[in-house]
Amino acid sequence: MIRRLYDWTMSLADHPKALWVLACVAFIESSVFPIPPDVLMIPMILARPSRAWLIALVATVSSVLGGLLGYGIGFFFYEAIGEPILSALGKADAMAEFNDRFNGVGFWAVLIAGITPFPYKVITIMSGWTAMPLATFVVTSIIARAFRFFIVASLLRAFGAPVRQFIEKQLGLVFTLFVLLLIGGFYVVRFL
């Protein structure tokens, strides 16, 4: 089923309203859809490299707005369903402690999920569930998603089709390594 969904998403890159389709895919991917917007971005940018920045901007804005939907899902459904159940089980204090710990590293959680292959939708929903400060969530989402989508657009604009396989197969690993080095650097500076 995922393969059919992937193929269907790829076919939309040739659609006359591809930018709108990209906006919709980026929006829903941030909370429920399993296929990342890169699947549309790559063929769109290869077809029209002069629109690379516009395509990356549409993906970024739509993804962050979709992230707000994911945040709302976590925030409103937890309040209505999750919290009463946990209170009845005597786990409300443990959940409050978890929320504090998650929100203590929330910037990093959103940044890592927004850049790496880790599903961004999981963090958008968890951010709402733990009531992460909305400003922290939005600013970090903008940084992470813009970084990811503009790097992809830059590589495709500069190198064209030859870099496509690298982006599809290896860029997630490169982003993951970058985040690990960034966190390691902060750790070294702070504790050494």
Description:
This is Membrane protein YqaA, SNARE-associated domain. It holds the Pfam family VTT_dom. Keywords: Membrane, Transmembrane, Transmembrane helix. This protein has helices spanning 2-11, 18-29, 38-47, 52-88, 92-104, 106-115, 120-129, 134-159, 164-191. The termini are far apart. Helices cover 81% and strands 0% of the residues. The protein has one domain (26-31, 44-191). The longest helix is centred in the middle third of the chain and has 37 residues, at 52-88. It contains nine helices and no strands. With 192 residues, it is mainly alpha-helical.
Question: What are the defining features of this structure?
Answer:
192 residues, mainly alpha, 0% strand
Uncertain runs with pLDDT below 50, 5 residues or more? none
Strand count, sense and barrel status of the largest sheet are:
none
**What's the multimeric state?**
single chain
Query: Which percent range fits the helix content?
Result: over 70%
Order of helices and strands: HHHHHHHHH
Q: Shape, please?
A: elongated
Provide the gyration radius in Å: 18 Å
Q: What structural category do the secondary elements indicate? A: mainly alpha
Give the N-to-C terminal Cα separation: 49 Å
Q: Mean pLDDT, rounded to whole units?
A: 79
Number of helices: 9
User: Beta-strand level of the residues, as a percent range?
Assistant: under 5%
Overall structural domain count? 1
The overall strand count is: 0
Pfam families: VTT_dom
Keywords: Membrane, Transmembrane, Transmembrane helix
Domain VTT: 51-155
Protein name: Membrane protein YqaA, SNARE-associated domain
